[in-house]
Amino acid sequence: GQQVMQIPQYQHVQEGEDFTTYCNSSTTLSNIQWYKQRPGGHPVFLIQLVKSGEVKKQKRLTFQFGEAKKNSSLHITATQTTDVGTYFCAAFQTGANNLFFGTGTRLTVIP
Amino acid sequence: DVKVTQSSRYLVKRTGEKVFLECVQDMDHENMFWYRQDPGLGLRLIYFSYDVKMKEKGDIPEGYSVSREKKERFSLILESASTNQTSMYLCASSFTGWTNEKLFFGSGTQLSVL
C-alpha cells in the first residue's frame, strides 16, 4: 500500500530554535494534510495543501507542498513550549480513497 | 464544534474476549474511520465506512470487524482479542467526499489485552 515516510521521528530543540519535519512519498499525492497531536491528546487538523508548489502560513508555521506533489514540509520558526507534540502528515494517493498517515515527528521543546 | 465521542478512555481485556469499541459523532458526517496508533508506526487505518451499513477494509483489517447500523455510530469489534491488539484506538469522522475533507478525531481508547 501507499507509504508516506516522515522524518525525523524525534526532534529536541531549544526554545526559540526552528524546527522542520518532512514527508516523502514515492507516488504522486492528491493532497496532503497536517495534524498535530498534543501529549495525551488526539490528532487535530492543521491545514491542507492541494496545489503543486503550494505554500501556506499559519503564524509561525509554514507548510509547503512539493512541485511534483510527492513531498511536503512543516517548518516552525522560533519554537515555543506550546509547540510540543507529534506532527503528522497525511495524504491521499492519486486515485485512492484512503488517507495514509506518516509515522509522525515528535517535537520536544526545551525551555 | 464537531464532537467525536469514544465510549471508553481506557479498557483492559483478557486474551480471547470479544471487545466492542464504540464511536459516536454528532455532526451528521458521512465518513467514519477506525485507526490504531502505535509508537513508531503512526496511525494505521483498520476500517472505514462512507455510509450506513457500508464498510471498507483499510491497511490492517485482520482480527477486526466493524458495524455501522446508524449514521452517527461506528463500532469496532475485536472478535477474539489478542495481546498484539494492545494499542491506542482512534475513531475519526469527516463530512463527505474523500480528498478534501479533514478528519475529526475522538479522544482515543487505550486498549490493553492481557
Give structural notes.
The complex is a heterodimer of chains A (111) and B (114). The model of chain A has no long low-confidence stretch (mean pLDDT 92). Chain A has strands spanning 4-7, 10-14, 19-25, 29-37, 44-49, 55-58, 61-65, 71-76, 85-93, 99-101, 105-110. By secondary structure, chain A is mainly β. In chain A, a hairpin with a 5-residue loop joins strand 7 and strand 8. Chain A is globular, with a radius of gyration of 13 Å. In chain A, strands 2, 4, 5, 9, 10 and 11 form a six-stranded mixed β-sheet that branches. Chain B has 114 residues and is mainly beta. In chain B, 0% of the residues lie in helices and 53% in strands. In chain B, strands 2, 4, 5, 6, 9, 10 and 11 form a seven-stranded mixed β-sheet that branches. Chain B is globular, with a radius of gyration of 13 Å. The mean pLDDT of chain B is 92. The A-B interface holds A 1, 6, 9, 30-31, 33, 35, 41-45, 48, 50, 88, 90, 92, 97-104 and B 33, 35, 40-45, 48, 56, 58-59, 90, 98-100, 102-108.
Biggest interface, chains and residue tallies: A-B, 25 and 23 residues
Largest sheet of chain A: 6 strands, mixed
Residues in helices of chain B, as a percent range: under 10%
Proportion of residues in extended strands of chain A: over 45%
The percent of residues in helical segments of chain A reads under 10%
**Cα-to-Cα separation, first versus last residue of chain B:** 36 Å
Q: Which outline of chain B best applies?
A: globular
Largest β-sheet summary of chain B: 7 strands, mixed
Number of helices of chain A: 0
Q: Note the gap between the termini of chain A.
A: 40 Å
Query: Could you say which structural class the secondary elements and strand pairing of chain A correspond to?
Result: mainly beta
